[in-house]
């Protein structure tokens, strides 16, 4: 099999009923297959798919292993040249796969690519989770072509060029299976959120490229598993950001960058308190405490990453502070940052 479209589901019956048939219709063809991975759901998701969409192969996992662990276990069971990881709350469009797969065929040094991701609910705007390709700044803050923090741009065709990026979005990412296996797949301990950034960082270190191919377009609802800006999501984002910095930063930058990032996280907690959202501030504190609890394990993973590394020059890791650019200099869009 050449291309496996793999959708991870956890108690997402309504989303599958809304979006999965379209995925099947627009992903059909020789050498292609659609898989639904049921991540220990307690609703009737798998039964509904089995009854109503016989063309979809079902992989059942015994419990909820999160986004990272669920995909790791599922992809171990699938033999394909390319994995297409697609969120269950995504609407694909006619012909969406061809530009992505053709690009991967023509660029064997590319480990992963993503389409242009627009908002399902605000269809002429980019979507928060990926937009037209992901980047990361010197302190580990992620942003996109088309989205910086909560400022999401209207899609006017300003990012319609194919370009190399730092990370492809877990909402929809094509991954070369050989690169996935070489770099170890997702880190199970992330559970959910930022695992794709961590993986793409390892792709770069191992000498691969990551790209955005905006000739393919999908629409993403967002927040299908965890709504944006909730305490669980704040916790995972802050904890996992510390995880990925510790694992992947070079020795000469590790301690300085982590020190500054911890100060910035403290400032973010104070802002949450000022806004009357002490629960989110508490989530940041818990994220830091759990980061320290995992230091021994992270040290082992850091050595694994060092052994993987052949390229110490990071493509598209932006040597600027996006916090400073956005909040102090007022640069609210990707095109104004002058990357």
Distance between the termini: 39 Å
Provide the β-strand percentage band: 15-25%
Largest sheet: 9 strands, mixed
User: In DSSP terms, counting alpha (H) and pi (I) runs of 4 or more, how many helices?
Assistant: 11
The helix-and-strand class reads alpha/beta
Tertiary shape: globular
Radius of gyration: 19 Å
The low-pLDDT segments are none
Beta strands, count = 14
What does this 3D model show about the protein?
It is a single chain. The protein starts with a strand and ends in an 11-residue tail after the last helix. Helix 7 (231-248) runs antiparallel to helix 8 (251-274). Strand 7 (134-137) and strand 8 (142-144) form a beta hairpin. Helix content is 41%, strand content 21%. The longest helix has 24 residues, at 251-274. Strands 1, 2, 3, 4, 5, 6, 11, 12 and 13 form a nine-stranded mixed sheet that branches. A three-stranded mixed sheet has the order 8-7-14, with no helix packed on it. It has a two-stranded antiparallel sheet with strand order 9-10. It has 339 residues and is α/β, with parallel strands linked by helices. The protein is built from eleven helices and 14 strands. It has a domain at 231-312.
